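re: that chain from earlier
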Amino acid sequence: MHTRIYKLLSLLVIVVIIALAIFIYPKYFNNLIKSINPNFLGFPEKEFRLGLDLQGGAELLYQADLTGIKTEDIGAAMDGLRAVIEKRIDIFGVREPEIKIMGDNRVSVQLAGIKDPNEAVKEIGRTPYLVFMEPKENYEEILEINQKALEEQDYDKMQDPFTPTDLTGRYLKKAQLNFNPQTSEPVVSLEFNDEGSKLFEELTKNNLQKPLAIFIDDELISAPIVQDVIVGGSAQITGKFTDKEAKELATNLNSGALPVPITLISQKSVGATLGIESVKASMIAGAIGLIAIIIFMIIYYRASGFLASLALLFYGVLILSIFKIIPVTMTLAGIGGFVLSIGMAVDANILIFSRVKEELREDKEIGSAIKSGFSRAWPSIRDGNLTTLLVALILFNFGTSFVKGFATTLMIGVVISMFSAIIITRILMLAMTQTRFGKIKRIWR
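^ sequence. v structure.
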């Protein structure tokens, strides 16, 4: 029974390798089949998403309004702005935008694969600037002036009755959609971090029985009267929202409220920093390295090395297919993570084969030696890969977009490499032991 299962599974592995190879590079298979049957419609073609360094894209230049920001806080405000924009574009670390601070008040955003700069603007989306404002000392007087100006239609005399405070979206911890229990109208509930909670408490304390204005993108959303000192950092945005508008606002605020307002001042297309020849040279170098590894594995580990090479092919086509499906933006940093994970896959196989050799030296049967070898090698493989995953997670959480791209491909690669080494290689080896080659011990030593 086990003999048939392992043989069927090994056949399935080979079929999957072929199917995934077609998915990765359908053009070659389409040309091959069409040369035989011109009526063949062809397999659907899906291209890899390439990074800015490989295919170019669009560049947006934003200018930040630092009015009211203290000189010593400008650096932190610009770093926060860069981080928020990056989070909006690249929350999963697979797009790898290039975001740079230019001078004191400008941010450059480069997005790969976008030829139309207007499309790049849509990619960034609406990143709201949230700020709480308190009434000026002569608030009542300004209201009277504004009322008179409205009656006389002399709008130039109108004044802003509110003044900005330090409480902005940079202190926002969470925003969510709720509904007013009395009116059933949608509202957006806000929760600030510890520093924001202190600012909000102080703000409500200083403005009892006065309006506290909430502005988003310089538009007054609501101005509730402060009834009590609010402790705990919770606030609520009310307004004439539809359910969809309130949900969208909460989503955008959660994705990152801008610490300072920004204005788009320039947009243009940018070219690739690496030429096609450089990409081809990198691919050739990678192919040569992979072939060298396969040759070494077959020469040194014989039958085990040959089967490990098949498992490595399975690993390669599976991970490239995943990169296409997600899709992961392929940059040199991402390719570096992929190549490193190949090394992890080979390392796991070497640990297993060394253990199998030790078991065979003790004159165990080949099937028993393989099972024992996998069992004894597993703790070392597990610890090594979990350590790498932990480092990759740290890089993903604290790194910039390019570092996140490297970490993402490395994490995917490590998980797939463990599956390839432990499951696929085991299936192929146990299936081969059920053939006549399983009785020839010298090809396994």
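The chain has three domains: 2-46+274-443, 49-127, 130-257.
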